[in-house]
Specification:
The chain has 208 residues and is an alpha+beta fold. It has seven helices and ten strands. It has two domains: 81 residues; 107 residues, no CATH class. 46% of the residues lie in helices and 21% in strands. α1 packs across α2 and α2 runs antiparallel to α4.
């Protein structure tokens, strides 16, 4: 049996992701998954910001007389420059992070190449279905076994790959890309199970 001679490729765009920042990566090392890391990062940043505010007020209270008596002195300048430098450092270390794009290839197998490596799946082990963005956000995003390859969550639908022996995989593709994926998956499954072989032009008929 000859393989079907084409491969469909889709790309989930990269996005800004604080979990991929310097501080985010450090927190992720001690977290179970990215969801927990994101929650811990928010708590840590809030705690550090609170300490910076308290420290700035305490320093101003302690050096108030010095600042009032000599506003051009080094102490007066440091009381504003040091906190500002610390705020900038916090923003850079905790807020500057980027998740690289993810490439999905649909050929004889489904290959998902993400920032963490490559996931290869057989068509017969996958049951794909489309869900609404709100359904993903309210449920599957919070499910610890879900592997997500999503961008900025701007698409109205999410493609969900469901398995019997592992958690689901979520892919953020456009509506047209989801349609193409489902058609290609249907044809590939027929090709694997029944030995059907056809060119790309016959995809819609065979998948219906």
């Amino acid at each position: 049996m000859q393989p079907i001679p084409y491969v469909l490729r889709f790309t989930v765009p990269g996005r800004i992701n604080p979990v991929e920042s310097v501080l985010g990566r450090l927190v992720a090392r001690f977290s179970v998954d990215n969801r927990q890391a994101a929650s811990r990062l928010v708590i840590l940043v809030a705690a550090v910001a609170l300490l910076l505010v308290i420290g700035q007020y305490a320093a101003f209270a302690a050096l108030h007389e010095v600042v009032a008596g000599a506003p051009d002195s080094l102490e007066a300048q440091l009381i504003w420059m040091v906190p500002l430098a610390l705020w900038v450092l916090l923003v850079v270390c905790a807020g500057v992070g980027y998740t690289a794009p993810t490439t999905i290839e649909v050929g004889d197998r489904i290959s998902i190449q993400g920032p963490g490596g490559t996931l290869t799946l057989s068509h017969t082990s996958v049951k794909p279905r489309r869900i609404s963005r709100s359904r993903y956000y309210d449920h599957y995003r919070r499910y610890t076994e879900t592997t997500s390859f999503v961008g900025r969550l701007v698409e109205p639908e999410i493609l969900l790959l469901v398995f019997r022996d592992r958690g689901p995989v979520a892919l953020e593709l456009t509506t047209e890309e989801i349609d193409a994926f489902l058609v290609a998956h249907r044809l590939r499954t027929l090709h694997t199970i029944r030995g059907i072989h056809a060119p790309l032009s016959e995809l819609p008929a065979l998948a219906s």
